[in-house]
UniProtKB/TrEMBL annotation:
Belongs to the cyclophilin-type PPIase family. PPIases accelerate the folding of proteins. It catalyzes the cis-trans isomerization of proline imidic peptide bonds in oligopeptides. GO terms for molecular function: peptidyl-prolyl cis-trans isomerase activity. Keywords: Isomerase, Rotamase, Signal. It comes from Nocardia thailandica. PROSITE patterns: CSA_PPIASE_2 (PS50072), TAT (PS51318). InterPro entries: Cyclophilin-like_dom_sf, Cyclophilin-type_PPIase_dom, Cyclophilin_A-like, TAT_signal. It holds the Pfam family Pro_isomerase. This is Peptidyl-prolyl cis-trans isomerase. Its EC number is 5.2.1.8. Residues 77-220 form the PPIase cyclophilin-type domain. PANTHER family: PEPTIDYL-PROLYL CIS-TRANS ISOMERASE B-RELATED (PTHR45625:SF3), PEPTIDYL-PROLYL CIS-TRANS ISOMERASE-RELATED (PTHR45625). It catalyses: [protein]-peptidylproline (omega=180) = [protein]-peptidylproline (omega=0). Residues 1-35 form the signal peptide.
Amino acid sequence: MSIPSQAPVVRRFAAVLGAAAATAALVASAPSAGAAPAASCAAAAPGTPNGKQWLLEPPLSLAPTATYSATLDTTCGTIDLALDAAAAPRTVNSFAFLAGEGYFDHTRCHRLTTEGIYVLQCGDPTASGRGGPGYRFPDENLAGATYPAGTVAMANAGPGTNGSQFFLVYRDSRLPPNYTPFGRVTAGLDVLTGVAAAGVAGGGGDGTPAAEVVLNRVTAAPA
């Protein structure tokens, strides 16, 4: 799967959407000085990712007309999401299943991009960009997809390779409609902009966030 940056180069989104090569890329550079206060993050809660694996995508068990929400309890603050089960039922079903299994708990958001594409990537228990739950499922909700600030979308390594990795858009980003949007941030966008303001570890615009963003606990349920 390819993701264009604002440069004329197209770089591969290493599981930024999914499980591709470590060289894959969501592109980035530091945000404007003073754009937002840098994140103030706490120590992670005790525990390690459970790393569970499944051979098959979980059976679809969503109530078709229900509204779903999720909460990401992170070391840098709480982020609340509204999940679009009507537009992306398999994606929301998988996300809710993994949250219920504690799959996301104690995982680190391993990638931040700060130029051209403005996202924080999470959901990989290995924090390598290659991890996933063992199953994959098809893309959804791509027709006319856009990625404004607050979008929650799946990372992938090409068509039909969704697993557990997802990204949170903290500033309007121009991406091709290749990444399943399945929700939006309803509270906590300031947490994301604070993480972005802290920049990428070691400098540059694409890599491990300087702020250690760990998902202490993720919950998802009908609202």
